[in-house]
Specification:
Structural class of chain B: mainly beta
Shape of chain A: globular
Oligomer: heterodimer
Number of helices of chain A: 0
Strand content of chain A: over 45%
Shape of chain B: globular
Strand content of chain B: over 45%
Largest sheet of chain A: 6 strands, mixed
Number of helices of chain B: 0
Largest interface: A-B, 25 and 28 residues
Largest sheet of chain B: 7 strands, mixed
Order of helices and strands of chain A: EEEEEEEEEEE
Distance between the termini of chain B: 33 Å
Helix content of chain A: under 10%
Order of helices and strands of chain B: EEEEEEEEEEE
Structural class of chain A: mainly beta
Radius of gyration of chain B: 13 Å
Chain lengths: 112, 113
């Protein structure tokens, strides 16, 4: 079945540093999504990518849809304490609803 | 008002109890989903409703029973659960179209004792 490999699983960074995480798959996706989940809350959509090669920013966040359609990355610039949380990538394949699968998440911890 | 609202936020139930989780979306979407999130596990899709019809049931035990009375409301009826069913249950909604992103509720933290 479809699988997403998200890395790293966790990371500790110093406040002000840039962060990079990615998702890869052996399958092709039509849409890539990046979510952030705070403890005890539901995931919140950060960025949606719809076209191969697309590069989209949302404040300090930048995400790209890989040219091969099999990967995506998320960068966070100048991290701050409120960036702490779990970041999930998700990919949509096929043309029908329900074909949305998630990576296992990257847990981000920031040292103040 | 938030786009997708789940109630209750927290629920503790015994193994012989019957309870229901509720989800309501105010986004005009026509697809709704139930996900289960356990510690150290990825999000697991449980059920999908599209245009009020169930289109997916990922081998979920029958002690979980979904109901979608209309495009804005989704329920998950629970009965005779097991302690391993304790998890965060998330509802999401989307539009039924190519590549449509899903929006999540805040989740219900369920503890089965």
């Amino acid at each position: 079945g479809q699988q997403l490999n998200q890395s790293p699983q966790s990371m500790f960074i110093q406040e002000g540093e840039d962060v990079s995480m990615n998702c890869t798959s052996s399958s092709i996706f039509n849409t890539w999504l990046w979510y952030k989940q705070d403890p005890g809350e539901g995931p919140v959509l950060l960025i949606a990518l719809y076209k191969a090669g697309e590069l989209t920013s949302n404040g300090r966040l930048t995400a790209q849809f890989g040219i091969t359609r099999k990967d995506s990355f998320l960068n966070i610039s100048a991290s701050i304490p409120s960036d702490v949380g779990i970041y999930f990538c998700a990919g949509i394949y096929g043309g029908s609803q329900g074909n949305l699968i998630f990576g296992k998440g990257t847990k981000l911890s920031v040292k103040p | 008002e938030t786009g997708v609202t789940q109630t209750p936020r927290h629920l503790v139930m015994g193994m012989t109890n019957k309870k229901s989780l509720k989800c309501e979306q105010h986004l005009g979407h026509n697809a709704m989903y139930w996900y289960k999130q356990s510690a150290k596990k990825p999000l697991e899709l449980m059920f999908v409703y599209s245009l009020e019809e169930r289109v997916e049931n990922n081998s979920v035990p029958s002690r979980f029973s979904p109901e979608c009375p209309n495009s804005s409301h989704l329920f998950l009826h629970l009965h005779t659960l097991q302690p391993e069913d304790s998890a965060l249950y998330l509802c999401a909604s989307s539009q039924v179209r190519w590549g449509s992103e899903a929006f999540f509720g805040q989740g219900t933290r369920l503890t089965v004792v």
